[in-house]
Amino acid sequence: LAKTTQPISMDSYEGQEVNITCSHNNIATNDYITWYQQFPSQGPRFIIQGYKTKVTNEVASLFIPADRKSSTLSLPRVSLSDTAVYYCLVGEMNSGYSTLTFGKGTMLLVSP
Amino acid sequence: DAGITQSPRHKVTETGTPVTLRCHQTENHRYMYWYRQDPGHGLRLIHYSYGVKDTDKGEVSDGYSVSRSKTEDFLLTLESATSSQTSVYFCAIRKDVEDGYEQYFGPGTRLTVT
Q1: Residue B63 sits in which domain range?
Q2: Alpha carbons B71 and B59: distance in angstroms, whole number
Q3: Cβ–Cβ of B103/A100 closer than 8 Å?
Q4: Of residues A44, A101, A104, nearest to B105 (C-beta)
């Protein structure tokens, strides 16, 4: 399983764009990149998933360069409610036995 | 929301006693997972299941067993609870989507072993 590295914490202010970068140097050909969000006392919540280039949904954008050795989660105009831990995961999507490994995540603190 | 419930939501038990946690889903997804979450460790996979009676170990399986006799239920058992198993336990299911899959998590069970 590909190992991921992401910052332990980040600070931002309301209304700013936040970019969280994840490094995954040994990503395999069949691996997808997935981001989750977790609030205190809750289970993680799926945010976005991608394989290459750019993916955008109503919550975030995911940028993946051509070499796929890193990825960046972009949260536009964050609010206080975006304060959470964000996890970057890399894992194979095609195997019936595939699992995802959660690292320690990035604690994002959004201030007024 | 993938219709995942966990029971109990909170439990306090004594060292050496057996404990069973239940995960129930309403959508008949094939894959189910048990994780534990501890401060400083993120989420760690304990066991997972890829069908009825089909299970496999995760990275922290020692001291835990699982069973899946029905698609909708995935049970996690601590045969003899230890204080190191004090943790928050999350169950998850996998939904296959067009370009990959997504995991949906239950609300968690907070277990304290005294």
Answers
A1: 4-113
A2: 23
A3: yes
A4: A44
